[in-house]
Amino acid sequence: MGTIVELTLAVRTHGESVVLDCKGRLTSVFSRYLFIETVEDLVEKHKIVVLNLESVDKVDASALGAIAACVSCAIDHGSSICCVGAKKQVRQLLEVTRIASFLKFYDTEKEAVTAMNAFAA
């Protein structure tokens, strides 16, 4: 019997910004750990981290905690995190828990990278 991979992550750079493409579900202890470790590593090296949540199918309470931990880490390192492509359910959960007040949301990756680079300049 094979292992089910709930979450895959891919990192792409855009100048001084970095985009983290997330695909799958952010619902297990393993996916939460993978997500936090990856984002914390990125905010230590980059001032702007764009979370591409377009292909995230499902989140749960642990995902909200993971995103909150990543936002806190970014603030500690003087970095900024923004989101692009968050589905309605994900965005609503972030808004209800007030985590969204620490994030900027954009419709497209290009818009996010452009706005965040201008903000950081």
Tell me what you see in this structure:
The protein is an alpha/beta fold and 121 residues long. It has one domain: Transcription Regulator spoIIAA (2-Layer Sandwich). 45% of the residues lie in helices and 31% in strands. It has 4 helices and 5 strands. A 5-stranded mixed sheet has the order 1-2-3-4-5. Helix 2 links the parallel strand 3 and strand 4. Helix 1 runs parallel beside helix 2. The protein starts with 6 loop residues before the first strand and ends with a helix. The mean pLDDT is 88.
Topology at a glance:
Layout lengths: L6 E8 L2 E10 L2 H17 L2 E12 L1 H16 L3 E5 L3 H9 L7 E3 L2 H12 L1
Parallel strand pairs: 2-3, 3-4, 4-5
Antiparallel strand pairs: 1-2
Mean pLDDT over all positions:
88
Q: Could you tell me the number of beta strands?
A: 5
CATH superfamily descriptor: STAS domain
* Largest beta sheet: strand ordering: 1-2-3-4-5
Shape: globular
The main β sheet shows up as:
5 strands, mixed
Describe the oligomeric state of these chains in a short phrase: single chain
Give the CATH topology.
Transcription Regulator spoIIAA
Figure out the total of helices: 4
End-to-end Cα distance, whole Å, is 51 Å
Low-confidence regions: none
Overall radius of gyration: 13 Å
Sequence of secondary-structure elements: EEHEHEHEH
Category by helix and strand content: alpha/beta
* Total domain modules: 1
Strand proportion, as a percent range, falls in 25-35%
Name some characteristics of this structure.
121 residues, alpha/beta, Transcription Regulator spoIIAA, 4 helices, 45% helix
